[in-house]
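Hey, quick one: can you model this chain's 3D structure?
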Amino acid sequence: MLVSIIVNNYNYGRYLAAALDSALAQTWRPLEVIVVDDGSSDDSWSVIERYGERVRAIRQPNGGQGAAYNAGFAASRGEWVLFLDSDDLLDVGALARMMSLASDPVVKVQGYLRRIDADGRPLGGAVPYIAHDGDVRPIAERFAQYGGPPSSGNLYRRRAIAPYFPMHAADWRRSADTVPSLLCVFHGRVATVPGTIGCYRLHTQAVSQSGMVGNMDRSLAGALQQSERRRVLAAAWGTQRSGMRWPCAPMTLPWEWRLRTLSWRLQRPLHPYPQESRRTIWRGLNESLSHWPGYTGLERWAQRLWVGFMLVAPRALVTRLAPSNVSGRLRAGLRPLRRNDVGMTEGSA
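Sure thing. Here's the predicted structure for all 349 residues.
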């Protein structure tokens, strides 16, 4: 069964060879590796040229991640498809382990990714914090999201994502992985590989000082707006392409309530929800936690305690404690109480 790894790249020549090497080193066969260079201005194309016929290379003007996904998917032939970010890495046996779970009615196999910094040094922990699997449609319908890894940790059955390609590239210059990740679950089940399958690179440590995790957002307001935007757009695309009906407007995710708390306390002039108050945040958090499965009772209690304290603590103390929102040490203290997990996960679920 042919698997296609599609590597999307923009100005990551520094990391690209390692990503391509990790794709080509997979023990699973048959395999094709496609790399889409989305208008890079660095040395990315010269890196790609060194691989010759070992990869299928596509060079196009810069159109964003969605445009790269579209080009790579159109060129691919595999029954299963993985979109690998060019700064991430796959373990040698990742595909073989994922394909061992790729039986009907599974449409997506996902795996945890170890966190590394810009220079490849381990940061500890892995993403995501919670991985939902099985029939996750009820979660997806309520939140327009579910617990899962970023792009490089997902292997898709082609028929489950084909209806949503090509996506509107202009809407998805970033976060294009939202489209296949969210919409595939309406065509079957999700399976999760035990342990970790590769590495997820985090480039910016500065954002963690504001309580954020990730590579793109530089403000709390920006992170909140982008999260809401991508879920709304993906849900609308699902309706347009497959006639999906959503029972309600997407609920706010638990981790978003933590960000909303920090945004409301620390960056109120920019806060995207001007009618927010302590009461609305507290009520919203509790409603979200009641519908988001996977947390232990202690984890729910810990999140309520954290938000409650941050809502009333002096602003200077909130600033000082904001990084605890993405603290690996704090999460590691709760992790031993979780069963059937990788034992070291950390992320934004």
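One thing worth noting: The radius of gyration is 20 Å.
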